[in-house]
């Protein structure tokens, strides 16, 4: 019986991932670029101890996981077992520091932590590229949470997905920026990302235009990060988010994640910028608004968002490290 505990941070895409070229392997239709965060994420322990009742025993946030989540975790563990030559079922204990399935990237940190904990518990020592590829099979964005700071995910060209992996950018965690998260709703989002991507790709008249726009945004974002140019990076992040959501809104039937507080928070960010604070929004597949700003401005931005109608609370996160083992026994 072996076990390991790993932690991984959520990552928020600044150049969005929205659409797949292969759903079975979670191969992205485009590249993406994100920032891994320090205080928001997942802690997961895996022990190959036989599980319970002939299957894996999975708990989420201290309670038995729902059937859908447990099945997804077990299917992922099957990949690890096959690679390690193991038959034993496992006990999995996972806890998120952000709401699950709410548009706050819990699946990214969750599958990054599960990939690292499960492989170490199974006696495997995978390279960062191998871990990124494995995490991607659980959740496309999890490939990025293997690494810290600014991370770029490659679309890849191979049919088997071996080159669809993430890698850290040179900036790492050294740029003193912050991401302020405005929570604008409680509970899970109305439609999961995978289903929403599939519907967008199949029915949205704007989807092909969205895909064509990404390479240019990636090149511009790399340059902005290299130059530590916050206004340039912020403008790219806003543009990418709005284009992604436009493609989803044009699906049939339409996919609309925003609520009135989402729009109010966007207005707050624009007002802050008009008054001289360099703050820039991004929105993932959910209603919450994330705001990129300088570290020195984070408290001011958080206070303004807290005063915005409909915002339930705010969180401030800095660039964080990649996935790591915190206990192996």
Structural summary, described in words:
There is one protein chain. This protein is α+β, with helices and mostly antiparallel strands. The protein is 38% helix and 24% strand. The protein has helices spanning 67-84, 106-121, 128-138, 142-145, 193-203, 207-226, 230-249, 260-274, 298-306, and strands at 3-15, 20-22, 27-28, 32-47, 57-60, 63-64, 91-96, 150-153, 166-168, 177-183, 279-282, 289-294, 313-317, 324-328. A hairpin with a 4-residue loop joins β2 (20-22) and β3. The strands form 3 sheets. Strands 1, 4, 5, 6, 7, 8, 9 and 14 form an 8-stranded mixed beta sheet that branches. α6 packs antiparallel against α7.
Summarize the structure.
With 329 residues, this protein is an alpha+beta fold. The protein has helices at residues 67-84, 106-121, 128-138, 142-145, 193-203, 207-226, 230-249, 260-274, 298-306, and strands at residues 3-15, 20-22, 27-28, 32-47, 57-60, 63-64, 91-96, 150-153, 166-168, 177-183, 279-282, 289-294, 313-317, 324-328. The strands form three sheets. Strands 1, 4, 5, 6, 7, 8, 9 and 14 form an eight-stranded mixed sheet that branches.
Write the SSE topology:
Blueprint: E1 3-15, E2 20-22, E3 27-28, E4 32-47, E5 57-60, E6 63-64, H1 67-84, E7 91-96, H2 106-121, H3 128-138, H4 142-145, E8 150-153, E9 166-168, E10 177-183, H5 193-203, H6 207-226, H7 230-249, H8 260-274, E11 279-282, E12 289-294, H9 298-306, E13 313-317, E14 324-328
Parallel strand pairs: 5-7
Antiparallel strand pairs: 1-4, 1-14, 2-3, 4-7, 4-8, 5-6, 8-9, 10-12, 10-13, 11-12
Helix pairs in contact: 1-2, 2-3, 6-7
